[in-house]
Amino acid sequence: MKEFQLIDNFFSGRGPQRRDVLLGIGDDCALLRPGENQTLAISVDTLVENVHFLPDMPAEDLGYKALAVNLSDLAAMGAEPAWMTLALTLPSVDELWLKRFSDGLLDAAQYYGIALVGGDTTRGPKSITITVNGQIPAGKALTRSGGRNGDWIYVTGSLGDSALGLALLQGKHDARPEHQAYLVGRHYRPTPRVLAGQALRGLASSAIDLSDGLVSDIRHLLNATGLGAVIHVDQLPLSQAMRDTLPLDQAISYALTGGEDYELLFTVPEAQRGALETSLSQSGVGFVQIGQLCTGEQLKLLQDGEPFTPTYLGFEHF
């Protein structure tokens, strides 16, 4: 049984239904309505040692990343970060590790203005679970389901860098020292596109953050819209470090399926394309158009007009 089938079979649509729940299981965040003019976005993620991070990952980077990956879910909904809780499971108390971990976590919290308001600690295999809460003006939340036939598909930043950084740590590739530092840095400290997500409110028709890889994540968006998409892989944004380290076809495969980029993939109607540059100019991140939504339910990957098949289809837990 796959991860999302597990969720659908045992959790989705079960339990009591409340009128103040605008959107529940199935998107990057739940959306709640605590009052007339505000929507509350909530998301939770767990990082488990040897599944989501290597045992020798620097504790300060792990703390930073643990929060950053959650903030990326808020970014995908256009939310402003507000509060978080932390559940920390550790095999033993290591004060030096805890000092470094908390420094990294709270550095990220300070930068993005999110308050730590509670949590839990317990003994067991090392894992970190963070729940984040963010606020969105009523009616302004971005979701996965709003895209329409003909909408243009965009991504922020560059793709594949985090996965290549992990591969370098695992000794699968070699890179020049300056590229090694950049790529490992993108794996250890991703940048949640919080300001970009807020800038896209009222402009993007749908959005999702790229955690499991472009191919996997765009399928979630397409499932929500009932549409297909054409992606031109020669238009994918690749960093210079990626281009200098790998052959082009391998770089494209990393960009399509590598995962943990935590960039935003979003769709924009033709009428709003002209407003993108102005809207995103203050967010400090670049963006490129990589394809278009279309009728049908297929995802088509094209390179120079010909079908492109990646060697790997993205991460799944089960």
Characterization of this structure:
By secondary structure, this protein is of the alpha+beta class. It is built from ten helices and 13 strands. It has helices at 3-10, 59-77, 95-112, 161-169, 177-188, 194-199, 214-225, 240-245, 248-257, 276-280; strands at 21-23, 30-35, 38-48, 80-90, 115-123, 127-137, 152-156, 206-209, 228-232, 264-268, 287-294, 299-303, 306-307. The strands form two sheets. A seven-stranded mixed beta sheet has the order 8-10-7-11-9-12-13, sandwiched between helices. The chain has a six-stranded mixed beta sheet with strand order 1-2-3-6-4-5. Strand 12 (299-303) and strand 13 (306-307) form a beta hairpin.
Structure at a glance:
The chain is α+β, with helices and mostly antiparallel strands and 318 residues long. It has helices spanning 3-10, 59-77, 95-112, 161-169, 177-188, 194-199, 214-225, 240-245, 248-257, 276-280, and strands spanning 21-23, 30-35, 38-48, 80-90, 115-123, 127-137, 152-156, 206-209, 228-232, 264-268, 287-294, 299-303, 306-307.
